[in-house]
Here is the input.
Amino acid sequence: MDSHRAEADALEAEIRALKRACLELPAPGEDTSRVRQSFQGIYQSDSEEWKSSKNQRRHLGRLESELRFLSTLTGIRIRSYSKKTEDLTGTEMAEKSIKKVLQRHRLSGSCHMITFQLEFQILEIQNKESLSSVITDLSIIMEPTKYSELSEFVSRTEERRDLFMFFRSLHFFVEWCEYRKRTFKHFKGKYPEIVHLSKGASSSCMGIRSPSQPDFELVIVWRIHVDEAGKVLPRLDLLTKAPLRALELDKKGVIESAPLSFRTLLGVLGIEATLESLIKSLCAQS
Amino acid sequence: MELANTLSQDGKSGGGVLAHLERLETQMNRSHKKLEEAQSAQAVESALGTKIQKLRCLRDKLRAEVRERQARVKASTADVEPDQTLDISEQEILERRQENLKAILQAYRFTGISGKLTSRGVCVCISTAFEGNLLDSYFVDLVMQKPVRIHHHSIPVFIPLEEISAKYLETNIQHFLFILSEHLNAYSGRKYQADRLQSDFAALLAGPLQRNSLCSVLSFTYNVELKGRSFPFGARLLYKDLTAALPTDVSVTYQGMDALPSTWEEQRAAHENLFFKKPLHRVFNSFARKGEELDVNLLF
Here is the structure.
């Protein structure tokens, strides 16, 4: 009796401590507190560097912290960068005080699970009045290539030489992927018997199937699309699977109209509430 | 808009896990109270056993949650790749690494968002470009406290900075920066198009280009030549989507006194279509180059 009491008390104490820890750590989606912590980390590590006598090591440590902070702030980690400059100023141009320089840049890094390698050229023309910089060439290599939604986006971006749009759309694309993964995981955790992630939480499909009626299945297909202008938008579709007999009995055509009703529901309730209501309606008896 | 909704839902979903765990706990507390009222010691004993099981379950879930959050924090603070060098003196290795890191810090400006550390936080620089032309940069000086706030900035007053920071600055700073970047790049692009129209194609404009500071409303009249005759057209472009550099509403009207010949009605419609699809100065580029009747088929 006493040992049980003691165990219960110990568990309660541990739960309290874990809850405190949870509150201190940023929840998924709360990037600002993570960025704030990263910033505070810079000055903490800086004070340690004071103890070391090597001036250069301190400076190096500071640079590394600054880089870590920037990558937390933007979500983009640049791993390597190199640049070559070529002076294209002809003698005629020099006489008119016009300077023409071609820069060749090579940059590689990652944004979450996607890695990229960029090569681009910038032409700088300086005359008496102004300086103009133009990106004259852009080539992008991205991994993993399984994100087929992105290959069209990449060629469009290369054509337009829109370097900044590449990073912007990449950020929004990755955010949507993370949100989709979290949402699928959430529903799998809440309804483990009913929700099926046959290709894992990082895929684009979530299946809903009641264990009492395994022949009926709803499949949510959630794709993330990048449009012409570089805007990243989710595209959700509903696929239904039902035995032939059920389709014959379905006089009202409920199964046939399900995908359309799904779209309407999305517009009204939003993604999470729609998925929740779908799961609940299919498994009303459970 | 959709993204905004889902972000607030996302906050709920994260809260949803904690709320779910909290619900488990209240359920437990409720059943605990019920058990205390029971008479027999045996009932109390077995109830205690059930309670311990539920507590264990809750503790395991919380442990998993904390582990996952710690992993996320760790992943975001992983180190930069060390430079590969040959067997040289340590001094040179350090110097080379220093140069490498400095270069990478500089390279951040090519992502469109870069920053310099300050004593109170970071001064973020947002760069803009349109069609490969590098344009103005804007800065936002952030104070890294709880809550994060903007110390000062160079964002034009007609960009909805207040709205964007109220929505995202405290919860998702990356989002705040990229959405601000979207607005600024679109504004820069619209401004570039309007400026180019005024400077390069003044000869084709019948009157001054009327524009607002946000460059989201443009109004102008232009002449189109056909076989010696000149037809005046008026155009009004509205850019209701502030994150886009192409108009959402276009209306082209014939400004002349006499009736518009039927072939020109096709032209008018074709012009409207052009303004929707192509940047302003490119549309005028094609007007200037042709100088004759535009082949309507080429436009679609």
